[in-house]
Design a protein that fits this description.
- The structure is a single chain.
- The protein is mainly α.
- It has helices at 2-16, 19-33, 38-77, 88-116, 127-144, 150-171, 173-179, 192-201, 208-211, 228-246, 249-259, 265-297, 299-305, 323-347, 356-374, 376-397, 407-410, 414-424, 427-430, 437-476; strands spanning 122-124, 186-187, 310-313.
- Strands 1-3-2 form a 3-stranded parallel β-sheet.
- Helix 5 (127-144) packs parallel to helix 18, helix 10 runs parallel beside helix 14 and helix 16 crosses helix 18.
- The longest helix has 40 residues, at 38-77.
- The chain starts with a helix and ends with a helix.
Length: 477
């Protein structure tokens, strides 16, 4: 038993927890299954792996600026995170092994479900979110079932997480078909709740055809804003310089000194904006690079191992579709969050901490999905929805994890809040020792959903077969 546990932990830490390795191995296997030549297999796997590495380099470049941005904005608003007796570091030191086992067992269950039910369609491959979804689930289970042993936490957590990984790309599929009509890959990101709300709420606001952010007509003097790199650099630099103007001089000087001790705070603020734009450009290049390999290579799995399956991938994979909408969603979500922060501080409520990285990815994704429904109006709505969810969710969820890892509420995406409160809602039952109901209900709901989707797909296919001969006869006539 100990050997099996060590193997599963190794896989979690060194394969599923390392996104470049995971994507590289899947690309390698997919090309081998397609019987490509050895040189093509090696080159394709390396290009996909390097693409993911480039993507994460871009994330590191701009997220470093966002962390400084967060510090400066918090100082400018005069806020600081609330005190906590426990920390995420402490929680991971106690439950890190449990989380690693949940990741591995959940992925094996997820693969089995996708193999058995063709309607599942998508294999969840966003490695870092595999870790965070498992962490949030284990923290929630520890909260509602504090006496549960490790085996119980692993099996119950894995069943729930596998159900989430299976269903989340499916409930995003209708919106993703607007982004990717050819259905090359699915959307696997924990911003899905904000994206769904935006997609449905934006319907009355117009159409993408009339208001697409990528086709906006600007005056000649402002036409340079059409270049997303330039608009990103300008917008973030301006926001950063405003933050520098109102933040504590010592905080700004300390942040600037981390880049260069001789640097003026104002020049530092400008450089942060420029680095942010550079990081986004690197990220988008990495996305294009690894998508060019993983999507065709995955055909090997789709044809030979898991028929009809497509990869479900991280949020940045859709950002190149409408980068202007991404920036519009990010800026709007940031403004809305800061308004909520000011209102909360003035009223003496919870002290919010600006989660800049989440505001970018969640706000940007919701802005993009809002744009495919209603153009720039939908993108703005996506930013509003994201800012509100992240602000309200943070305020209400800190207490939920105060005995485990309260930082999970400030690092959270919208789906994290949904998972935490969904499991919390089972507390009256779980408190009586029925923790096994969590995976049982989750997996039963998943199977029922897949069976219904499978029947719906069969009916649709039958209808298409019936209309095909009529269409052919009409064409001949």
């Amino acid at each position: 038993m100990g050997v099996i546990k060590d193997i599963l932990t190794f896989l979690a830490n060194n394969v599923f927890g390392q996104v470049p390795i995971l994507i590289g191995l899947i690309t390698l296997a997919g090309l081998v299954l397609q019987r490509k030549r050895a040189e093509d297999v090696v080159a394709g796997a390396l290009r996909a792996t390097i693409g993911v590495v480039v993507l994460f380099i871009g994330v590191d470049v701009f997220s470093g600026g966002l962390s400084s941005f967060q510090t400066v904005l918090a100082s400018a608003m005069g806020t600081s995170p609330p005190h906590a007796d426990h920390s995420l570091t402490d929680f991971l030191s106690k439950q890190g092994g449990t989380i690693a086992l949940v990741i591995t067992v959940a992925f094996l269950v997820h693969v089995l479900i996708v193999r058995l039910f063709p309607a599942a369609r998508y294999l969840y491959l966003t490695g870092h979110l595999m870790f965070w979804v498992s962490t949030v689930t284990v923290a929630s289970l520890v909260t509602i079932a504090p006496g549960a042993d490790q085996l119980t936490l692993v099996l119950c957590g894995a069943g729930f997480v596998a159900a989430y990984w299976t269903l989340q790309p499916l409930w995003m599929r209708p919106l993703m078909r607007r982004v990717m009509p050819d259905d090359r890959f699915g959307y696997a990101h924990t911003s899905s709740l904000a994206c769904l709300i935006t997609g449905y709420a934006a319907r009355p606001l117009g159409s993408r055809e009339k208001h697409d952010t990528e086709k906006l007509t600007l005056p000649r003097q402002l036409s340079f804003f059409k270049d997303v790199n330039i608009s990103t650099a300008l917008i973030i630099s301006v926001i950063m310089l405003i933050g520098v103007a109102f933040a504590d001089d010592g905080v700004v000087a300390g942040a600037a000194a981390e880049m260069d001790a001789k640097l003026s705070p104002w020049v530092w603020g400008l450089l942060v904006g420029l680095r942010f734009a550079g990081g986004i450009a690197i990220l988008l290049y990495g996305v294009r690079m690894f998508l060019g390999e993983i999507v065709p290579a995955f055909k090997g799995f789709s044809d030979r191992v898991i028929p009809g399956t497509r990869p479900a991938l991280d949020a940045p994979t859709v950002f190149p579709v409408a980068p202007t909408a991404v920036m519009l969603g990010f800026v709007t979500s940031t403004v809305v969050f800061l308004v909520c922060l000011a209102v909360s501080a003035a009223a003496g409520w919870f002290t919010l901490a600006p989660p800049m990285i989440m505001l970018f990815f969640v706000g940007g994704a919701a802005g993009l999905f809002g744009n495919v429904v209603a153009g720039w109006r939908g993108a703005l709505l996506g930013g509003v929805v994201s800012g509100l969810i992240l602000a309200v969710g943070q305020g209400f969820t800190w207490g939920l994890y105060e005995r485990t890892a309260p930082e999970l509420s400030t690092l959270a995406d919208p789906d994290w809040y949904a998972i935490g409160w969904l499991l919390k809602a089972t507390d009256p039952v779980i408190g009586k020792g029925s923790v096994w109901l969590v995976p049982a209900v989750a997996l039963a709901a998943t199977v029922a959903t897949l069976v219904l989707l499978g029947r719906s797909d069969k009916r649709r296919a039958a209808a298409e077969d019936e209309t095909a001969p009529a269409d052919a006869a009409t064409a001949q006539a």
